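Colleagues,

Please find the record for the two-part complex below.
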Amino acid sequence: MNNSSPYQPDDLRTFEIVPLGDSALSVVFGDRIGPETHKRVRQLALYLERQPFHGMIEFVPAFTSVAVYYDVMALLDKHANVAEPRHRQFPFQIAAALMDKIVRQLGSLPVQQAKTVEIPVCYGGEFGPDLETVAEQNGLTPQEVIDIHSGADYLVYMLGFAPGFAYLGGMSERIAAPRRQTPRLAIPAGTVGIAGKQTGVYPIETPGGWQLIGRTPMELFLPKSWPPALLEAGNVVRFYPISRSEFDGWEESRT
Amino acid sequence: MSVRILKPGLLTTIQDRGRFGAQKYGIIVSGPMDSYALRIANLLVGNDEAAAGLEMTIVGPEIEFEAPALLSVCGGDLSPSLNGNPVPLWRTIFAPEGSRLEFGELKKGCRAYLAVAGGFDVPVEMSSRSTYLRAGIGGWEGRPLQQGDRIPVGELPPRSLSLLRKLRRGAGKEDTAVSPWSLSADLLPAYAPDPVIRVIDGAERELFDEESVSRFFSETYRVLPQSDRMGYRISGGKLKLKEQAELISSPVTFGTIQVPADGDPIVLMADRQTTGGYPRIAQVISADLPLLAQVNLGGKVRFRSVSLKEAQQHAVIGERKVRTLRHGLVLQSVN
């Protein structure tokens, strides 16, 4: 991490506030991905959602940190104490002090129950052309891969890469598979894939090198609604298998 | 009123200030590459700074105004002309009904911005009118403009009406009119084909070997042809880490300079993804993003290191100038 930060909180063991350019900062809770760190990320995200500070533009929860984008002028207009030049701070220091105060009181806040989102997946066939490969590589049958993939709870750590794309934690290493040598040029929206020890769902058609194991009829990117994504950081995701006819009838069955 | 696109140009898109508040859903900010030019263009026609205008790239479009219009072209010099006569940049211009705005030779920079009083009145999607090309939403049908498009323009705000009256005083009904007022020299960006761009440290600067860091600040980098609105690929001196590091993907921002395994840096621009996983050596300061955005493919850049405090001072100085201009135009539009 960047230790030359002009702002050092008292206790570096618990969190660090570092600049992300000159109009954003990052509150970093260590560098280890896990439920403890994730809990603190969620607490801070929840706080900023409910009580954005004056001058905050937006925030993005990530694996071990929360990025906070701010408006330099709005912070100065509100906090610059022009009468007291000794106390004049530049905008990063103002924002960092605000965040420091917020983070220190997070410990006492209750953590909300995570929302569980169930996502139907039609595994294999034309939707999952790499299901066999993933099974072979792991000495499993395709059905076993499906059982393992749909038998776990996944934690949404962060959204990024594409609109509505969730970085999920919690996939069993028993179904891990390396990326394909040659990426495919167009992977349809809704495709479920595996890359290394990660699994994810492509929200829009995009090129990619993932091993494709199935497809969901659900939309993950919803530009006409708000929030514009099915998932958000902090959700729990469960996949459940559906048949091809259920997949085809999905649109009609939704009311 | 609408404007008609007679020729689309190379890449003409509708952009407002950008799509904020949705990055946590993986939705990119988009918006103008040179936000300064679009903001000034909007102010000059009496719009709110955040109104939607056109970003035009290298080869400008040909546009017909179906009703009288107040317009401004700012940013790079793509040789704009109205009804066959060259018009100046960074000014307020009155165009009578049926006027045609065309562009010619690229003289400076590579992106020009057109603001029309009232702003382009396209649907707001996820709280912005900016075009999100990859997802095909926002702007006009989520795509670059094409021949035959008719883009609606909104109602004129009160300030536009008073600027319009002032500009037309003494002009005939069919005459083009160019404002006597213009931007003071200190408000014009120092666009150059080979600017020195100021940067602050990136979060992973210490992971790079010393030789790479000094190379980054001494070499001249060339903007590669595969650069676009998403990012500038630049090449000049390969950058290496002290040792291989696997980073966790995390949020990035406009101007983040990240270095993939091949050692050629990428500067993230307006259409950047919301998160990235490559080590970040530096970060372009906000005040210099417009200068970088106006460097064309094949152009050159050098980097100079400044402190975060200096970066924010420059940002504040720039914002204060914009405020001054805003107030000046308010005074212009009264009486």
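Chain A touches chain B through 54 residues (CB under 8 Å).

Comments are welcome before we finalize the supplementary table.
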